[in-house]
Design a protein that fits this description.
Elements (H helix, E strand, L loop, with lengths): L1 E6 L4 H13 L3 E4 L11 H12 L5 E6 L3 H7 L7 E3 L3 H9 L5 E5 L5 H13 L6 H14 L3
Parallel strand pairs: 1-2, 1-3, 3-5, 4-5
Helix pairs in contact: 1-5, 2-3, 4-5
Bound molecules: D-ribose.
């Protein structure tokens, strides 16, 4: 699995914790987050990273900002992205099993680094269940394919 991780200025600490986790888990990753001496705009980080997942360069992404909301809104504008803003382990597990989410958004100002790390770990370890969920995800893909 190849993972792209990105963050704005409000996600620096959780970004570092998640990078440590990816290294411990032996997961190949690229960090495209900001160097962040000053404040930046989260769409400038979320949209290019999401496109690199949608085009197949990466399997999954972890996007971090202050609340996780901006990153998730932006990521979900990219066709083929199913970004889940998730701050608990139950949702992290279920969004992989049922939604096959390919991006996890985390909000550093909402959860602390220890919980963020555990949420990310569960999300990375959990497989999609397929079956009835495949059909439901297919309906989202069909909608995305329609002309606006
Ligand atoms: C930055 O202040 C903050 O707005 C951003 O990190 C994010 O929380 C937006 O949704």
């Amino acid at each position: 699995m190849k993972v792209i991780i990105t963050a704005d200025h409000a996600g620096m600490t959780v970004r570092n914790v998640v990078k440590e986790l990816l290294e411990e888990m032996g997961i190949d990753y690229e960090d495209t987050g900001c160097s962040c001496e000053s404040s930046v705009d989260y769409p400038d980080y979320a949209l290019p990273a999401a496109e690199r997942i949608a085009n197949g360069e990466f399997d999954r992404g972890i996007f971090i900002c202050g609340t996780g909301i901006g990153m998730s809104i932006a990521a979900n504008k990219v066709k083929g992205i199913r970004c889940a803003l998730t701050h608990d382990m139950y949702s992290a597990k279920l969004t992989r099993q049922h939604n096959d989410s390919n991006v996890l958004a985390l909000g550093e100002r909402v959860i602390g680094p220890d919980l963020a790390r555990e949420v990310a770990r569960v999300w990375l370890e959990t497989e999609f269940q397929g079956g009835r969920h495949e059909n439901r995800i297919g309906k989202i893909g069909t909608y995305e394919g329609k002309d606006a």
